[in-house]
Design a protein that fits this description.
Blueprint lengths: L1 E6 L6 H12 L2 E4 H10 L3 H11 L6 H14 L5 E5 L5 H12 L7 E6 L2 H15 L7 H15 L2 H7 L3 E5 L4 H13 L2
Parallel strand pairs: 1-3, 1-4, 2-3, 4-5
The structure holds BIS(adenosine)-5'-tetraphosphate.
């Protein structure tokens, strides 16, 4: 199985590159951001709780996202592999993912990190906020809070995969196709 973790700060292009990877490799896309927004749009209790945190630029509790991913893995037992987009976002989530995959005789193939500077991140997210309707994209203060959450809680997840020799970093600035070519090159090395 090809199991990829796409990593990077908010707006780094994880969702954008995931779409291209799905087309090429036929993997199942698991975006915890999309799953949470799905819960919000259905008005579930989980969605109502998550919305308060997401609108403020904060992470939702580990147990919530780990439960969602576990359900999705169970629902896709015959998949060729998965793209984990926006998950794991804490070391506790990374440990839980390893355990979940191990129980299915599988493992992460590698983490690919997209490096983008803070000015470009803010620019991309504010641009998307103009028509996405996402409250967390509309306000520079919330965007900065999301980047801070990333630096405080998510950046250490890179170390978890470095220790397993599964970490590769690429330049996330440039055209979408250039970045995809760099990701593809990494996948070819697995
Ligand atoms: P996510 O939905 O994961 O979103 P993201 O980090 O904002 O975006 P991504 O990196 O996917 O950027 P995209 O490709 O869309 O998270 C939202 C929130 O959900 C979090 O803040 C948190 O509250 C919660 N959450 C999600 N997962 C969680 C977890 N595991 N644990 C706890 N909480 C969790 O690109 C952004 C923009 O840039 C787009 O407009 C795109 O068109 C543009 N773009 C992309 N590539 C470009 C390029 N090369 N050049 C120019 N623009 C580009």
């Amino acid at each position: 199985m090809l199991n990829l973790v796409l990593f990077g700060p908010p707006g780094a292009g994880k969702g954008t590159q995931s779409q291209k990877l799905i087309e090429k490799y036929g993997l199942i896309h698991l975006s915890t951001g999309d799953l949470l927004r799905g819960e919000i749009s259905q008005g579930t209790e989980l969605g109502l709780e998550a919305k308060k945190l997401m609108d403020e630029g904060l992470l939702v509790p580990d147990a919530v996202v780990i439960g969602m991913i576990s359900n999705k893995l169970d629902a896709n037992k015959t998949a060729k592999g998965f793209i984990f987009d926006g998950f794991p976002r804490t070391v506790a989530q990374a440990e839980a993912l390893d355990e979940l995959l191990k129980s299915k005789q599988s493992a992460i193939s590698g983490m690919i990190a997209l490096q983008v500077n803070d000015t470009e991140l803010e620019h991309r997210l504010l641009l998307r906020g103009k028509d996405s309707g996402r409250p967390d994209d509309a306000n520079p203060e919330i965007i900065r809070k999301r980047v801070k959450e990333y630096n405080d809680k998510t950046a250490p997840v890179a170390g978890f995969y470095k220790d397993q020799h599964k970490f590769t970093s690429i330049n996330g600035m440039g055209s979408i196709d250039e970045i995809f070519a760099a990701i593809d090159h990494v996948i070819a090395s697995y």
